[in-house]
Amino acid sequence: MSDLPKLLLVDDRPENLLALDGLLRRSDAQILKAESGKRALELLLEHEVALALIDVQMPELDGFALAELMRNVERTREIPIIFVTAGLHDRDRVFKGYESGAVDFLVKPLDPRILASKVNVFLQLYRQKQLLMVANAQLLEADQRKNEFLAVLSHELRNPLAPIKNSLYILNRATPGGDQARRALGVIERQATQLSNLVDDLLDVTRITRNKICLQKQRLDLNQLVHRAVEDHRSFFERNEVRLSCELAPTPVMVDADATRVAQMVGNLLHNAAKFTSRGGRAHISVAVEAGQGVIRVVDNGLGMAPDTVAHLFQPFMQADQSLDRSKGGLGLGLALIKGLVEMHGGSIQAQSEGLGKGAAFVVRLPLDAGAAPDKTAEPERRPRVCRRVLIIEDNLDAAESLREVLALGEHEVEVAYSGPDGIERARSFRPDVVLCDIGLPGMDGYDVARAVRQDPALRSTFLVALSGYALPEDLERAAAAGFQHHLAKPPSVDTLERVLSELWETPQPVRLG
Fold this sequence. Notes:
By secondary structure, this protein is an alpha/beta fold. The protein has helices at residues 14-24, 37-46, 63-71, 91-100, 112-173, 179-209, 222-239, 259-275, 307-311, 334-344, 397-409, 420-430, 446-455, 473-482, 494-502, and strands at 6-10, 30-34, 51-55, 81-85, 102-107, 217-221, 243-247, 254-258, 282-290, 293-300, 348-352, 360-367, 389-393, 413-417, 434-438, 463-468, 486-489, 512-513. Strands 14-13-15-16-17-18 form a six-stranded parallel sheet, with helices on both faces.
């Protein structure tokens, strides 16, 4: 009853109140009645009112005086008022009523249809106002989370930069190949990986919210996938001195899913368990079949979460670690990313915690696939290194030169061009096996370069690979239409580059994301 919009009826005559109550009694509103202006003010302080119907002629505090008092109080200023009167013969009196804050007058005897129609309008306006207030509160909350996220993003991006710059300083002064230099290289590699993971999370959340992720589903066994994830993350648990145990289902748990994305979900949950569990703590992951679903549980006895944190945990930019030092790091995107990926697979995820200091549990449920067992395919054989003639077209000097040196260390013959027109000229003279071309070139962009290469009979056999920070499905389609045979999101790893170079001309014509 208390959630219903409220109508306030004010009249000094009980029989009039009873009549109005009978005319306006309805299931979607609550009626409040006052026999005096003073009692009406008391009710207005106790309740939020959608509409007030006030009799003009009342002793002590008449309708006009009551309306003026309402207009002088912030809480009641916006409440619409309809005056009920015996007549509208005095124009000055009508004007005074509108001056006092009336939105309308109703003349006795009241027409029930007109009364109901006017009340319906104001109730609808009230409901719309409430919806707008809720939406505005949600927008303010989202804006606050965005501002907090931007502050956290600045913090998280700056954190790796400091050790990277310090390590570069050390490398410039340390003995080449010495212990100091090796430690500095290790720091740079770890921090660069952290930066790359931050950017990947940002891109993945954006793709999910825009429904731009394309799942590559196949039949897979959750037992095998979880076992591999545990082995991949075991060293992280050991470094944090957290004991990790694993319990697999007694038989294969088959699902139709994207192996890479499910591994990403499980890896993220394991990483959180290790990160938010104190040294000497425990974490446990299990696989089971329950109610026709494959179930993955990750449980720890770590920091736990407050109930209000659990309620909003899967919202983007939401984090359990709100401390100033942000010792646990992260952008608050990981769980939002997991939730999006789980739901894309037709599943669900649930977070549980009994409170701060009492650990946490995450339960992922995915629909089972009742088909045949998975193929026991052998690991692909390692391909021998193949040296290629590679042309890099990249306008960022540091990016181009560092990529040239990376490929040269792999014994490839490499040339660099810093613009689209220069790249085409270099391609005609150098005759590369493969062109690694940035998409966002100034002037003549990468798409134009690809089209020009494809139109040159002497270069039509050249393998074209797009390098870009844009890796949404429409970006791949546009790259394929321009003539690219492969698409690598920046920054590509050395292993990915070498794999692409070793697989030239075996790649199917539709452009692939590396």
